[in-house]
Amino acid sequence: MPEFATPPISPFAIQFDAEAATLTPEGPTLTRRMSALDGLFKDHDAWQQAVADGDPVVYSVQSTPVPEVDRELPQSITSIEAGTTAGEFWMTKGHQHPNHQGEIYLALHGTGGLLMFDGTETQWIDMVPGTIGYIPPGWAHRSVNVGADPYKFLAVYPGGAGHDYGWVLEHGMGKRAYAVTDGFELREF
Ligand SMILES: O=P(O)(O)OC[C@H]1O[C@](O)(CO)[C@@H](O)[C@@H]1O
Ligand SMILES: [Fe+2]
Fold first, then answer.
1. ipTM of the complex, rounded to two decimals
2. Signal sequence span per UniProt (predicted)?
3. Residues 6+ apart with CB under 8 A from 24
4. Does 11 map to a domain?
5. In this structure, is residue 147 part of a structural domain?
6. pTM attached to this predicted model
């Protein structure tokens, strides 16, 4: 085996339960409440009110024990709760990969969307169970729950890709998903 600065972890099996949306063995779980989404919803006052009104959990991410380091290939399942803030559907923070690497998402449950922005162009992929959304290098990405159930998806990404959240705060995502009578509508800022 070649010499690496950080030794890769040993091979292991992951039990993937698509119905329950779980990965076993479990690694770290991350929970993001409304307060973690500062500066991301269009209506800042409504966001602040939601934080004051109990700061609900917006999404959680369950990982396997694969570390986020170069050459590894971590996986996680994200569950976004159903909800809106001033009409804007609940979503992940969204990020850019600092060193521009690709990623895939596989939708498992509910109705979601994969919003991508390269700084100029916005793309949206409807995500329903069975859809794989491909995120090419250089596209910031955010997942949105546009349904009435939790939206859950599996992510597989390069361990060295990193998460640049500042990029999204600075550039935005080009469009936002709002609730309308028969579903959702994408609106520009
Ligand atoms: O990192 P964010 O924008 O909070 O979104 C969470 C999701 O994105 C990932 O960071 C992978 O891109 C996963 O941890 C999870 O699927
Ligand atoms: Fe990513």
1. 0.94
2. none
3. 14, 15, 17
4. no
5. yes
6. 0.96
Give per-residue pLDDT as tens, 33-67.
Answer: 999 999 999 999 999 999 999 999 999 999 999 99
CA-based end-to-end distance of the chain: 51
CA distances from 161 to 96, 103, 104, 136 (A): 9, 9, 13, 12
Q: Which ligand has the nearest atom to the CA of 140?
A: 2
Rounded-to-5 percentages of helix, strand, coil across the chain: 10, 40, 50
Q: Is 61 in the pocket of ligand 1 (CB under 6 A)?
A: yes
- What is the 94 CA–ligand 1 centroid distance (Å)? 7
Each residue of 76-110: pLDDT tens digit?
Answer: 999 999 999 999 999 999 999 998 999 999 999 99
- Please state, in angstroms and rounded to a whole number, the distance separating the CA atoms of residues 48 and 45: 5
Closest ligand (CA of 136): 2
Q: What is the pLDDT of residue 9?
A: 86
Kindly state if the Cβ of 108 falls inside 6 Å of ligand 1. no
Count up the domains in the chain and report the number: 1
Peptide bond into 25 cis (omega under 30): yes
The finding on whether 90 has its CB within 6 A of some atom of ligand 1 is: no
Structural domain containing residue 48: 21-188
